Amino acid sequence: MTEMYDVAVIGLGPVGAALCNLLAQSGLRVVAFDAFDGPYSLPRATHLDGEALRILQNAGVSETLEPSLGIYTRMRFVNAQGDLLLDWPRSVEEGWQGWRDSNRFHQPALETALRENAQRHANLDLHLGQRVEDLSQDRDGVTILTRSPAQQSQTFRARYVVGCDGARSTVRAVMGVELQVLDKPEQWLVVDLIINGAAPALPEGTIQYCDPARPITYIEAVGARRRWEVMLIPGDDASRFAEPGHVWSLLAPWVSPGDAEIERAVVYTFNSAVAERWRRGRMLLAGDAAHQTPPFLGQGLCAGLRDAANLGWKLAWVVKGLADERLLDTYPSEMKPHVTAFIVEANRIGAIIQERDPEMARQRDEALRTGPQLLKSVRPSLGPGLTRSEIGPAASLSAQPRLKDGRRLDDLAPYGFILLCEPGFSAEAPPRTRDLWRQAGLTVVEGEGADWLESLGAKAVIIRPDRYILGVANDLVQLEAITSQIPLRLKDALCD
Ligand SMILES: Cc1cc2nc3c(=O)[nH]c(=O)nc-3n(C[C@H](O)[C@H](O)[C@H](O)COP(=O)(O)OP(=O)(O)OC[C@H]3O[C@@H](n4cnc5c(N)ncnc54)[C@H](O)[C@@H]3O)c2cc1C
Question: Which pTM does this prediction carry?
Answer without folding.
Answer: 0.97
